[in-house]
Amino acid sequence: MKRTLLIIISIIFFLPHIFSQQTSFYPTNWWIGMKWNKVQILVYNNTGSLKNASVQINYPGIVLTKINRLENEKYLALEVTILPDAKPGTASFVLKYNNKIETIPWPLEKKKAGNGKAYAQGVRSNDLVYLLMPDRFSNGDETNDKIAGLKDQSLNRNEMYLRHGGDLQGVINKLDYLKNLGITTVWMTPVLLNDMPNRTEHGYAITNHYKVDPRIGGNEMYKKLSAAIHAKGMKLIQDAVYNHVGSQHFTVLDKPMKNWLHEWPSYTQTSYRDQVMFDPYAAASQHKILSDGWFKKDMPDLNQNNPFVANYLIQNALWSVEEFGVDGWRIDTYIYNDLNFMNACNKALLNEYPSITMFGETWVHGVVNQSYFCENNLTNNFKSNLPNTTDFQMLLYGIQPALTEQTGWTEGLMKLYNTAAQDILYKNPMGEVIFLGNHDLSRFFSVVKGDVKKYKMALGWLLTFRGIPQLYYGDEIGMKGLSNPDGFVRSDFLGGWKNDSINKFESAGRNEDENEIFNYVKKIANFRLTSSALKTGRLLQYLPQNNVYTYFRYDSAQTIICVMNAGKEKKEINFEKSYPDIVRNFTGVKNILNDESFGYSLNVEGESFFIGILTH
Q1: 10 Å Cβ neighbour count for 512?
Q2: For residue 208, what are the β-bridge partners?
Q3: How many helices (H) and strands (E) does the chain have?
Q4: Residue range 58-116, pLDDT digits in tens
Q5: Where are the domains of the chain?
Q6: Which residues, 6+ apart, have CB-to-CB distance to 256 below 8 Å?
Q7: How far apart are alpha carbons 310 and 193 in whole angstroms?
Q8: Would strands 129-132 and 100-110 be described as parallel, antiparallel, or unpaired?
Q9: Cα 70 to Cα 582: distance, rounded to the nearest angstrom
Q10: Ramachandran region of residue 83, left (φ > 0), alpha (ψ -120 to 50) or beta?
Q11: Distances in Å between the alpha carbon of 65 and those of 78, 115, 397, 456?
């Protein structure tokens, strides 16, 4: 009896040491059939030292090749190789440390992308992207509005910088709305956990790269959204943040290594001056400040020259494609990353998923500046392999001045023409992402001071010009907001919350101007879905004359004419006289908005945008 009692006491004492998991693995799982089959697992135990830990794995097809013991004794970096003959299942890593035995399950699955699944397919000029902020778009599950244990417990829709409760279920609920509008691709601001004390609504201060924020639904809901998007023949873009993390990230609070972050004797912020990257006369110290300076105090800058940091970030990108079915990447704050690291990361993604696309946020000033960061025709010492960028130049130095300035030798419409003419610098200008606004910029309807005519001209341009068009949520109904402060451009989409008295997702909830704008966008966007010329056709533009700017989109099957009359007076245009290069084989034109047909002479109303199909 005494012996039995001792055995029971021993089991009770040792069970927690054997079975309780105190150690985390990053990545949490992997796949067979991946080209990236040499995986670095970052091991973290927040309760004690792993200095003398032993690690064993006995799973056919997985070989533990090296144990890297990092400067912080709470961390290890395991190097494992997944052999071609490995089978799906759950591997078990056994850690022995400090008189404890801990078994960590590590699932090994069959690679999904490329095996009949519509993942990693890329986003291109035949798509129409819709950018939204999950917290501000639609609340489909009120039970996750607050999550116990997270630092930010705010929930107040009347405060611009607090959480509002929107989530991934809300996005699922509105997918039919988006598809009917003509949207093909959903891009959301970052969905990963931001366990920060405040300003968690935007998602750009990540604290766990392997956990989707539970306040928007968590990992399983993100998978559900991805499946729902793909079931409707649509695509998913994930917003990647490689440059920095939130100050509450575990690798900041408890750094694995002294050089895990870029740290300075005193706080040093980036200069935001991208010119020093390509300026042949720039001082090296200024280059360092741009790249290694912190974006913000609460967003520590990662040292991507540290190979353990680099592997951690690259593997998370690969993991996200497989785990969530990502089709493309938007890369935040691209210019502040180490560009050699970005080339390595881009290469790893393209090597694994040849059809996937990436575009980097390049909020810079000048086409030369912007083109430096993507595949270009420049001659310099650094060659980027980033396919494309978010085209701030076509917005800030193109369509915006075209509709807010008087046209002159270099002003107004000429800025739009000149910016497009500089496409000579890009290897693939058709992959540039064009837009009228985003979560950092003033909404375009406010930029043109609520002028519906000018706003429709901008939307017509967006949906017919070269590149990948992107709408920001609410653009389709003319939402307003100036960017100072940025909270004004991050308002809720009314109707996304069950207690909203107005529902802007339905025509009955929109006013006359909003319905006019919505119907205009829907008409062109849905026409675009079947227009080969608008999706993939070439661009031919004419110098602006008398406040009129004309361009054509064309291929062997279709020719589209787009005429922007920025003046207030109606203009009569003779096609044969004005555009002899392209109209000689046609006899007339049909307005895509109302099917009205014309001969070679066309009257374009003042402050309007005409879109027509040339007819035989």
Answers
A1: 8
A2: 193
A3: 19, 26
A4: 999 999 999 999 999 999 999 999 999 999 999 999 999 999 999 999 999 999 865 55
A5: 21-110, 129-529, 536-615
A6: 42, 44, 70, 71, 72, 75, 77, 308
A7: 20
A8: unpaired
A9: 65
A10: beta
A11: 8, 29, 53, 60
| Cα 403 from Cα 254, distance rounded (Å) | 51
Q: Which superfamily does 536-615 belong to?
A: Golgi alpha-mannosidase II (2.60.40.1180)
Task: Please tell me what DSSP assigns to residue 398.
Answer: I
Place of tokens 């494309």: 388
Give the model's confidence band at 585: pLDDT under 50 very low, under 70 low, under 90 confident, else very high: confident
Query: Of 455, 456, 490, 497, nearest to 473 (Cα)?
Result: 490
Show the tokens assigned to 366.
């000048």
Q: What confidence tens digit (pLDDT) does each residue in 168-214 have?
A: 999 999 999 999 999 999 999 999 999 999 999 999 999 999 999 99
Half-sphere exposure at residue 540, Cβ-oriented, CA atoms within 13 angstroms:
14
pLDDT tens by residue, 7-43: 444 444 444 444 456 899 999 999 999 999 999 999 9
DSSP 335-375: GGS-HHHHHHHHHHHHHH-TT-EEEE----SSHHHHHHTSS
Nearest to 593 by CA among 601, 605, 577, 575: 605
Q: Label residue 84 exposed, middle or buried (CB < 10 Å: 0-12, 13-18, 19+).
A: exposed
At 604, is the secondary structure helix, strand, or coil?
A: strand
Task: Give the whole-angstrom CA distance, residue 483 versus residue 519.
Answer: 26
Contact 458, 403 (CB under 8 A): yes
The 10s digit of each residue's pLDDT in 348-379 is 999 999 999 999 999 999 999 999 999 999 98
| Average pLDDT along the chain | 94
HSE-up of 20 (CA within 13 Å, CB side)? 10
The CATH class that applies to domain 21-110 reads: mainly beta
Fold identical between 21-110 and 129-529?
Answer: no
Catalytic residues: 332, 361
364 burial (CB, 10 Å; 0-12 / 13-18 / 19+) is buried
What does the CA dihedral 476, 478, 482, 483 come to, rounded to 10 degrees?
Answer: 0
- Is 129-529 CATH 3.20.20.80? yes
pLDDT higher than threshold 70 for residue 407: yes
